[in-house]
Amino acid sequence: MSKSDRIPRDKKNDHSREMASQRAAFIKAQTGAELNTVSSYTIDPAITSGNIENFIGTVQMPLGIAGPLKMVGEHAKGDFYIPLATTEGTLVASYSRGMRVISECGGAKATVVKHSMQRAPVFRFDNALEAREFGRWLDENLNSIRGVVDASTDVPQLTEIEQYIVGNMMYTRFCYTTQDAAGQNMTGKATLHACEWIRANHPLKPRYILSGNIETDKKHSQMNMIQTRGKRVVAEFVLKRDVARELLRVDTESLYRFRQIADVGTMLSGAAYGGAHSANGIAAMFIATGQDEANVVESHAGMLYGELLDNGDFYWSVTLPALICATYGGGTGLPTQRECLEMMDCYGTGKADKLAEIIAAVVLAGDVSLSSAILAHEWVSSHEKMGRNR
Amino acid sequence: MSKSDRIPRDKKNDHSREMASQRAAFIKAQTGAELNTVSSYTIDPAITSGNIENFIGTVQMPLGIAGPLKMVGEHAKGDFYIPLATTEGTLVASYSRGMRVISECGGAKATVVKHSMQRAPVFRFDNALEAREFGRWLDENLNSIRGVVDASTDVPQLTEIEQYIVGNMMYTRFCYTTQDAAGQNMTGKATLHACEWIRANHPLKPRYILSGNIETDKKHSQMNMIQTRGKRVVAEFVLKRDVARELLRVDTESLYRFRQIADVGTMLSGAAYGGAHSANGIAAMFIATGQDEANVVESHAGMLYGELLDNGDFYWSVTLPALICATYGGGTGLPTQRECLEMMDCYGTGKADKLAEIIAAVVLAGDVSLSSAILAHEWVSSHEKMGRNR
Amino acid sequence: MSKSDRIPRDKKNDHSREMASQRAAFIKAQTGAELNTVSSYTIDPAITSGNIENFIGTVQMPLGIAGPLKMVGEHAKGDFYIPLATTEGTLVASYSRGMRVISECGGAKATVVKHSMQRAPVFRFDNALEAREFGRWLDENLNSIRGVVDASTDVPQLTEIEQYIVGNMMYTRFCYTTQDAAGQNMTGKATLHACEWIRANHPLKPRYILSGNIETDKKHSQMNMIQTRGKRVVAEFVLKRDVARELLRVDTESLYRFRQIADVGTMLSGAAYGGAHSANGIAAMFIATGQDEANVVESHAGMLYGELLDNGDFYWSVTLPALICATYGGGTGLPTQRECLEMMDCYGTGKADKLAEIIAAVVLAGDVSLSSAILAHEWVSSHEKMGRNR
Amino acid sequence: MSKSDRIPRDKKNDHSREMASQRAAFIKAQTGAELNTVSSYTIDPAITSGNIENFIGTVQMPLGIAGPLKMVGEHAKGDFYIPLATTEGTLVASYSRGMRVISECGGAKATVVKHSMQRAPVFRFDNALEAREFGRWLDENLNSIRGVVDASTDVPQLTEIEQYIVGNMMYTRFCYTTQDAAGQNMTGKATLHACEWIRANHPLKPRYILSGNIETDKKHSQMNMIQTRGKRVVAEFVLKRDVARELLRVDTESLYRFRQIADVGTMLSGAAYGGAHSANGIAAMFIATGQDEANVVESHAGMLYGELLDNGDFYWSVTLPALICATYGGGTGLPTQRECLEMMDCYGTGKADKLAEIIAAVVLAGDVSLSSAILAHEWVSSHEKMGRNR
């Protein structure tokens, strides 16, 4: 790489309008591209320090609001307006329709049923027997390892160390709770300290790699489905038969029958989500609220479960086993993102479960709307009307 | 829902500064939240029509640039600067490091090896025998169905109709090529027309639902891994032993050994991606370039394959079987997003494969950097230095 | 290995009573174990040549008969008595109950909807582009390759060559129909000939390995679920509401509700079969009829689909996407096994689809019985009464 | 069903030569099939009571012996001769070859690293919050539930109750150790007692179904891969470079390279086992030793892990996460089956882990032989020579 190809940087003052301009000029010189709108941002670059390197401006993603969504959750109670950042026409309208249906039926319950964030070092031994005995040693020394974690970091609490032996290797998952942070970085640090302590204290001084790939960070996995990553959260409501007919133009019997047809399709295809779509709402909320966008891949996994009740109403639930969201840290403090959190009173400490409940309920709303549109054969026509394929 | 809860809309002029302001005022009244920075956008609201409903402003996502990334692809040739929109500190720096390594080694090859976008209607019969005979009828009438598709839409070309019988149902996948569009909506429309023609012309007038869930739209699936969704693209390069030592502080032998440890972890956990992380780079590029952000969930799937060569160099490849990207339509024409595409000369028709090649090479760069950081035990310290967990 | 440790063999006359006795004496000398009943076989050892090496006697597996099972299949029509070889008490009784229910409801339909047996060589290239071009060459030369297959073997017909590129490798699946044989060996031979021809005729003389592991021979896989291995077969019947109540002591509504609870469990656990149990009946029939017992692992995969009809009856189907069975070759000609096939008029050519239909219907019967027993809380008590846990 | 169609039974003396003959005559009358060899069994029918209903004779499965296999396991030590019941020519010879290689290299280590047998009742609540609180109640009452288990059955020890909430349902897995029994029936009984106690004692008197399908009994699942079912066992040895060349005609470098090509194939196809074949050896040993044959489907799952050592030798391991085997109960006490167990000194109490070690080592031997044959292009020719496709 010749020097002239290098992106300009300033060690002392890199997150500044000046350096962003220099870089935009550099890009223009190198590629011919004008970055007028990228450069036309209204946030203070200094605030992005810690969130990005080589800052050159911002992408402006259209933000729409949907709602109100009535919630009767454990933490989220009342009517919420939901910020959705997306470029996909129809999305906000479709979610809004689902929210209206849920609200008309009394609102969505939502419950976080488990918390668990992981780092997954793998330890290598001469043989499986050593690996097994190491596992016993880990069990016996769990409290000491917890002490190491507590001494090295403030937030994460080590709940357990899951053990999975393959060959001469002990794959582990260090599971933590992380309060209102998503926690991938802080648990990484905590686990590194724990591993170094283990290496120093176990008689075999075992070699390890900080990730054996089974925390499945930034990946969907069946492991997440089973063991939870981030938050396992359920949203549920009872769809009234009359509301279904009036607002969705479908019978609850058809919805129930479709559940099983869709489930069979899910098993046939080995899909990560059993309903119509979870990723749309999660991605749009994640961008709006400053979540780590890559975590959509874990968070979109889930199962739909519905049941036709004796009175013809339809119990409808969505379970997200690996929802990763935070109300502080990461991108949550950036100006526009923070405002989106504040719109739902979800910024700051003590709010992460509330946010998780809302996200799950939004996913539920999206599935109510799209599943019904598919059944009522209205899905294409709404896209014709509102989306880009006119 | 009482009238006062309703989000203000204007049928004629809804994508306007006026209506955005009214909605911001409404949100403030309802929730108390000030939307000053959300409202401080610099793009023209009118241009978001077709991309969003209930527009209220924009989310400003920090944009960094990485590179140069040298490419010797089929379509992408030369040095590229890569726009990455993210809020995760260290990400741009880490990808940049990987790009530098690739560039020092002569650049990344990249190849789109298959195109296929699907809609997946399910047809219901009285029994499996009828379903099987229907499948034969579909085969025999494929050209007529192609004609229906051509008559109803401009872009999509129907390549084949995959058939999967379960019970008395024929789950199909209508597979299309869609030029430079992602194509989910246009193939939805085409498939609806095809299904209506089938229903009208097949003697049994079969009932159908437009989705049996096996196109796995907005979901990761093993189906995607096997059958492709969007583009199947491979990026590859040969990592020189000396470059690995110098820039990454790892031996190629260790990288090769780690490949298998990580693969075993992937199989153990049932993970969607075999390498360290694909979703980070894809999400950041998708936001920057106006892709449908929810498609990160399909696009992040993939396999790493590496091989230690006799001279100690390391062949390294990443295969993304379900990369969904476009260079027109959707959000690609929005001002900041379009500029990001232009930075790579990837805006407009005839550029989608080029963009796919670049995205795959970026994923490769990210894995080069993070895998090495994990092995060299540098992963935590870089986050300490650059990220938010100071 | 010292000479005295070697199992006695006779190059000329190894499948004989004499050599079996010598080996039994050898085992007694080496281990102290008396093999009286193993040695007390009544079949002619000579007939086992080609089926086993180091023949030492037989295992006598108890054989029970279940039925009659009324079938209204495409090939299997009428009442069948089913041979089940098992050591699990209750199994024959439970399947018999299911068969009675099906028969009372008019019998099981069954249909083979696809045939496909594979070998899956992987070809290695310098890069993905070469692999892609090789794929086109394969398409263009498909008829020549078919000719090679025809010239080298009698039975297998090459239907298609599926292509899956990863990195610089082309993973293929050579798909065949194999008439009444299971066909793994004959397709192995055919594919070897084809590969040698390809290697000789393609300009790059590509290296290959005869298996890249994606035929998933003797393994369950999602690939099998999607692409079929052996036979894809559906069995189905309509359970009458009254029969359910009387013979199974369950309501069809409960059965329908249980379907979805079980499906959710299947998705949660990533299980290969969506119903209660397919492996029991398949294993018992496979042993009885001389199938390759290891193929139970592929054959047990499947999906249940049921639907509550308006009149309260319950449509019930089972789909086995990878049923591997044969009516000649392998162990089907051994004396006891052949008699078991003859009991169903399934020995010899032209009978394989008929056998597949019967096996699928037996699986259906097993699920009818066990699912209902679980729901009626009778499952434990039947095992108490008939099984070993008294 | 008319009376004349009914299979003859005798309530008092059904497991007898007389009744078997009556049934054989009945089958001949109904189907025309002569059951001469089926009827020509040499075991006492009375002993099959509890193992089968409607006994009509036996299937005689050819039994071959392989070995010696040298083992340096935790429980299995010394040279073993392995009984393999199969009808697939080449199988015994191929496994023997692998055993010789392992023995020449000093023998196989093998270790059972975890025990866990499950029943998986699902409990239904009004909403997820109730389900979560029920989970806490289960944790608090674990010791009482253990007491109920102990009071109702002799063998099973309840180790833990895993909890997985989906919607308003709590899917549980009651995990047990079961000494030398496989334990599916005894844990079924124990779990039924536990559930009845829970229903009686929990304030909500929750409804439950004894199986929510996530014990995945008689099914392969990712759940088994992760959480273990039966025994998780590892077999391992170091293949010497020279032995590989001489006996297997392959280089250890090629074996190592093939590992990764096969792993990629496994991930691509979503296969249950990462090596060449586990089901062959397991099925043949299961039939020989009276295991429940259907459990092959769970037991065949696994991962291969290998590593090229600095001296050119190759560490090779196989991990079976869901091996289900027993040394008493079920079919283990039948005459021929018991002799096969005795041949390995594996009959009766205190032997189940030893048997598991041997089975895992046999799987390892099979993979050593077949993987090498595939690489050396000898796989087809051995089948030509020894198998049925002459």
List the helices and strands and how they pair.
Four copies of one chain form a homotetramer.
Chain A (H helix, E strand, L loop, with lengths): L16 H15 L23 E18 L4 E9 L5 H14 L4 E11 L2 E3 L3 H13 L1 H11 L4 E10 L2 E9 L6 H18 L5 E3 L12 H6 L2 E10 L1 H8 L3 H18 L9 H11 L6 H4 L3 E6 L5 E10 L11 H9 L8 H24 L3 H8 L4
Antiparallel strand pairs in A: 1-2, 3-6, 3-8, 4-6, 4-7, 5-6, 8-10, 9-10
Helix pairs in contact in A: 2-12, 4-5, 9-12
What does this structure look like?
The structure is a homotetramer of 390-residue chains. Chain A has 390 residues and is an alpha+beta fold. The first copy, chain A, is 41% helix and 23% strand. Chain A is built from 13 helices and ten strands. In chain A, the strands form two sheets. In chain A, strands 3, 4, 5, 6, 7, 8, 9 and 10 form an eight-stranded antiparallel sheet that branches. A two-stranded antiparallel sheet of chain A has the order 1-2. Chain A is globular, with a radius of gyration of 24 Å. The interface between A and B is large, with 138 and 138 residues.
